[in-house]
Design a protein that fits this description.
Elements lengths: L5 H9 L5 H24 L2 E7 L2 E6 L4 E4 L8 H8 L4 H11 L4 E5 L5 H9 L4 E5 L3 H13 L6 E4 L2 E3 L3 E8 L2 E6 L10 E9 H8 L5 E4 L5 H6 L2 H7 L2 E5 L2 H4 L6 H9 L3 E7 L2 E5 L10 E6 L4 H8 L5
Parallel strand pairs: 4-5, 4-11, 5-6, 7-10, 11-12
Antiparallel strand pairs: 1-2, 2-3, 8-9, 8-10, 12-15, 13-14, 13-15
């Protein structure tokens, strides 16, 4: 066996298949990995990695957000930070600006809770409503809310928002819950169906008597469905919106990101593309558009915020 795990090495030693000196030498090679992570914490937004009997947790950023996560997820936020040093820094900067004075925030597609918890830690005045329909992600969301002691600020809901209410099938790959969606948008061969629930945004706000100030939405292609189901809410409360839009994800749902831009333009919202190249006011997504995250601000209600956002723009 190539590079056996520490557990295998211990078993080999205990059964006599490996001598004590050989076991100690081989085990050291596994233990060295722990010390390699010291450099990781120096060069990334990871401040601590805690290994304990209840699992592994990562402490991220100046907010010191503690996140537990599944052990087989390649794209979950803490692992992304380990791999790429930071997690959506420009997008986070824009969300900080948009949500700065928000009292009611909706995190639609909260996953394990990074942004919901970050909002709670930074915005003492805000209450966050986090929606996550996937059972495993929802369990980690609840665990992370508790670990960060922000339960008084965050309400978690184990269902999604869409353009209709009822029982639906979600598609999820066991190692890629960040791509879970109402359709198998990633075309994963190992995708499994999970029965879940959806409500419309309009129904939810009416039931909960909630007036959102800011909505973050990342639901792997179904973003337009969320907002079509919330047209009355958007018209009445005119919240700021930050949403992911990928052409490859929206296509299976039968729309193009430009349909989302048109939808919000009809409500008198302006659109700003947000990405590594900066922030740009746009009216159309083309084949040359690199950004995949967009901010939508009402032309009149958010005029002051638009001016502040323009100071960050590249155009």
């Amino acid at each position: 066996m190539m590079n056996p795990t520490l557990a295998v090495l211990k078993q080999q030693f205990q059964t006599g298949a490996l001598s004590k000196p050989d076991f100690i030498h081989a085990a050291l090679q596994r233990h060295k990995t722990l010390f390699e992570y010291v450099d990781i914490t120096r060069s990334t937004d990871v401040k601590e990695i805690v290994i304990a009997a209840d699992g592994v947790s990562f402490v991220l950023g100046e907010e010191r957000i503690r996140l537990y996560c599944p052990d087989n997820e390649a794209r979950v936020a803490p692992i992304e930070v380990m791999n790429f040093n930071h997690y959506e820094p420009v997008e986070t900067q824009v969300m900080d600006l948009l949500a700065a004075n928000a009292r009611t925030i909706l995190d639609v597609g909260a996953n394990i809770g990074l942004y919901a918890i970050r909002f709670a830690k930074r915005l003492a005045q805000a209450h966050i409503y986090a929606f996550e329909p996937m059972p495993t992600s929802y369990a980690f969301l609840q665990r992370n809310v508790a670990a960060n002691q922000v339960g008084s600020q965050i309400s978690c809901f184990n269902y999604g928002l869409s353009d209709s209410s009822g029982t639906v099938n979600f598609y999820i790959s066991p190692a890629a819950s960040t791509n879970a969606s109402l359709l198998n948008v990633a075309d994963a061969q190992d995708a499994q169906q999970v029965v879940g629930l959806t409500l419309t945004l309009d129904q939810w706000t009416a039931n909960q008597k909630v007036a959102p100030d800011f909505i973050k939405c990342d639901v792997e292609g179904a973003e337009l469905l969320v907002f079509r189901g919330g047209c009355s809410t958007l018209t009445q409360y005119q919240p700021m919106v930050f949403a992911e839009l990928l052409r490859k994800w929206s296509k299976p749902f039968g729309y193009h990101p430009n349909d989302m831009l048109s939808f919000f333009a009809d409500l008198d919202y302006q659109c700003f593309a947000v990405g590594d190249t900066g922030i740009h006011r746009i009216t159309e997504v083309t084949d040359h558009t690199r950004e995949t995250n967009y901010a939508f601000l009402h032309s009149h209600k958010h005029a002051d915020i638009i001016q502040n956002l323009m100071t960050l723009c590249c155009d």
